């Protein structure tokens, strides 16, 4: 019979996996015409990363304290809700335990760092950026604009081929020639600029389509970092003889794959 703690941990892991899978799926689909999808993705990813990061730190404490999990005050005051702090603590844990990572030892790529920073700021207050603007509260930043400028633009510059970019430009010009006399566009971009012509709208759609697989890949690499760390800590914690530790590696198994497999999947909310 499973212990109460075991059941709580497995439910937490399952919930976290579903949040991460949902966020990884949604971030591929978000664009200037579906801005609400950005907020869905950011909510799921920031929640999921915080929780899987906390599971890692809880196991580290469990190992160091003879099978005792941290108390509420430790979780609140020492860890809190800051994804950046949780990541820095995870690096200390990996170094302290000499954990050899199969994939990424650190999330030090500028794109990974931008993703962590944007999600951390979203969790800390940017999720209310629209309401804050309306009511005149102190506004940190627009998370969608931050993502576009710090993630999508660099990905488009570095990961999309020149031939693909030329094809996007050519397609936008051709569509504008056919539709511009008969179509009207009324949208705003991720950064808040007005989109009023067909060519601009088409070019932005092409850009999003080209960037989407890469933004999803980088998000999944971030998720995989914590999955790998959690799996390693799980086996060390099990060596204490406790019956409270589930096989987290089984729950998060779909995320524990190399990039070639990750890039074959578009949807992660049903894994």
UniProtKB/TrEMBL annotation:
It comes from the Bacteria. This is Uncharacterized protein. It comes from Undibacterium arcticum.
């Amino acid at each position: 019979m499973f212990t109460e703690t075991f059941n709580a941990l497995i439910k937490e892991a399952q919930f976290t996996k579903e949040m991460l899978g949902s966020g990884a799926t949604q971030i591929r689909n978000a664009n200037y015409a579906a801005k609400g999808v950005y907020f869905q993705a950011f909510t799921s990813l920031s929640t999921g990363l915080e929780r899987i990061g906390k599971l890692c730190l809880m196991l580290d404490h469990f190992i160091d304290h003879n099978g005792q999990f941290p108390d509420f005050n430790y979780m609140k005051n020492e860890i809190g809700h800051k994804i950046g702090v949780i990541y820095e603590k995870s690096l200390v844990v990996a170094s302290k335990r000499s954990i050899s990572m199969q994939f990424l030892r650190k999330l030090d790529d500028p794109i990974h760092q931008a993703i962590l920073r944007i999600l951390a700021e979203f969790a800390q207050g940017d999720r209310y950026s629209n309401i804050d603007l309306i009511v005149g509260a102190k506004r940190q930043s627009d998370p969608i604009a931050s993502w576009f400028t710090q993630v999508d633009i660099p990905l488009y510059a570095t990961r999309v081929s020149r031939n693909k970019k030329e094809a996007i430009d050519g397609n936008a010009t051709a569509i504008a020639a056919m539709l511009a006399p008969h179509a009207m566009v009324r949208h705003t971009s991720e950064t808040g600029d007005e989109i009023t012509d067909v060519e601009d709208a088409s070019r932005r759609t092409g850009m999003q389509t080209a960037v989407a697989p890469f933004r999803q890949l980088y998000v999944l690499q971030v998720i995989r970092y914590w999955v790998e760390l959690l799996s390693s800590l799980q086996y060390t914690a099990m060596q204490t003889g406790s019956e409270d530790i589930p096989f987290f590696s089984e729950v998060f198994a779909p995320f524990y794959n190399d990039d070639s497999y990750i890039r074959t999947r578009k949807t992660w909310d049903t894994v």
